[in-house]
Amino acid sequence: MNIDKALEFLRKHQPLPADEDVSEADIDMLNQVRELLISNPDERAIPLVLNAFGDGGGFGVYQVCDDIFRPFKPEAVLPHLKNALASKHYGVRYWASQWAMEINSIDIAPEINSMLKNPEDTDAHYYCVAALIDIWGKTKNPFVSKSIIELGGKSKNIDVSGLIHEHRTEK
Prior knowledge:
mainly alpha; globular
């Protein structure tokens, strides 16, 4: 495995199929790509990785892909994360919402707000609100707080209410 083969695999899988349709070979290859990119960070991989996630958990591989992004400055990841948060593919948006918590830039608030308005993204609402809480903690922006309370408050995800309660007591 080398960087060119890793990037080629990622380009061909934008995104990978859902868990029920993805092959074991593709999941194994994604894990090899992940390991290579952790050892050999390459900015060209950022958008490709962010857009590779299919629906589901990737049999445990998706959860450990965040290490791919850690070597990079947030500014390098941010534009690609914004695009992933606005993707037409649910799995891409879902996993991007989890990594949004690490970037915590107000620049991603519009995309997170859009996800909070989308009932299809209910499973990701917890991560969206958690990311907004991190952004609010950094910026104290009242519009972010309003999004947490109003948009988060409309979510059907029962775990979100605890985050909103914590946010209200911290304000």
